[in-house]
Amino acid sequence: MYGYGTSANTWEIIIWIILGSILIFLILREFFCWYWKLNKIAALLEEQNILLSNFLKNSISQATSIDSINRKIIGNKIQKRCTRCKKEVDMDFTACPHCGNNSFI
User: Fold this and answer.
1) Exposure string (b/e) for 81-94, b if CB count within 10 Å is 16 or more?
2) Is residue 85 within 8 Å of residue 98, measured between CB atoms?
3) Using CA atoms, how far apart are residues 17 and 30, in angstroms rounded to an integer?
4) Burial bucket for residue 96 (CB in 10 Å: 0-12, 13-18, 19+)
5) Tens digit of each residue's pLDDT (9 = 90 or more) over 22-52
6) % helix / strand / coil in the chain, to the nearest 5?
């Protein structure tokens, strides 16, 4: 038969092994949950980037087609056309510098 000290040491070692295993399991579980969620978030962000860039391209093309009807873009300046003299004027002007008209297309 085993002595008192030997049996107690065996149970103590078994309990420490079980507690250590549970602790390692919890740490690894948190790590793997974090790791996989991070990958899901990255995939969702990439998909969101693609959708937003497509939306932006469509918005710019629609805005450009609408603006090109009434305005002409020269360089970086947007210009508008005077209804009286039909000359192009910068957007900053409230009246045409050529004829004084304040109505623009």
Assistant:
1) ebeeeeebbeeeee
2) yes
3) 20
4) buried
5) 999 988 888 887 777 877 888 899 999 999 8
6) 65, 15, 25
Contacts of 94 (CB under 8 A, 6+ apart): 102
pTM for the complete prediction? Answer: 0.33
Report domain extents, the chain.
4-70, 75-105
Tell which residue, 104, 45, 98, has the closest CA to residue 72. Answer: 104
Amino acid letter, residue 10? T
71: enclosing H helix or E strand: strand 71-74
Sign of the torsion formed by the C-alpha atoms of 66, 68, 71 and 76: positive
